[in-house]
Amino acid sequence: MKPLFISAAMLLSACQSAPIPSQGETLYINSQLVNCVGVGPMKCMQVRSDEQQPWTLFYQNIEGFKFEPGYRYQLTVSKEQLTNVPADASSLRYQLIKVVSKVASK
């Protein structure tokens, strides 16, 4: 009985450290980077998940996405919840699924 309990405990602990991906989410990206402060001074993208919402600062990168100033983007991204991350790191990882639109800003 004891080996079964140990195996179950190991399986559960392995599941806890695996990233949990989300379905695709829409992000709108503004056309210019802005000054912000994370661990230190840096440039951040401005994002929103709905065109009616105000822009918010985005302190991370989106894996697979190359930002070009002067364009507004609509992206589909996956968002993964990470575990066991350092205190100064984000617990979320974003990855590009698709660039839905890329439009020159006015």
Structure, explained:
Helix content is 15%, strand content 45%. With 106 residues, the chain is an alpha+beta fold. Strands 1, 2, 3, 4, 5, 6, 7 and 8 form an eight-stranded mixed sheet that branches. The chain is globular, with a radius of gyration of 18 Å.
Mean pLDDT: 82
Please trace the helix and strand order, writing H or E for each element.
HEEEEEEEE
Rg is: 18 Å
Strand % is over 45%
Features:
106 residues; alpha+beta; eight-stranded mixed β-sheet; 45% strand; disordered N terminus
A few lines on this structure:
Helix content is 15%, strand content 45%. The chain has one helix at 2-17; strands at residues 20-21, 25-29, 34-37, 41-48, 56-58, 62-63, 71-81, 92-104.
Topology:
Layout (H helix, E strand, L loop, with lengths): L1 H16 L2 E2 L3 E5 L4 E4 L3 E8 L7 E3 L3 E2 L7 E11 L10 E13 L2
Parallel strand pairs: 6-8
Antiparallel strand pairs: 1-7, 2-4, 2-7, 3-4, 4-5, 7-8
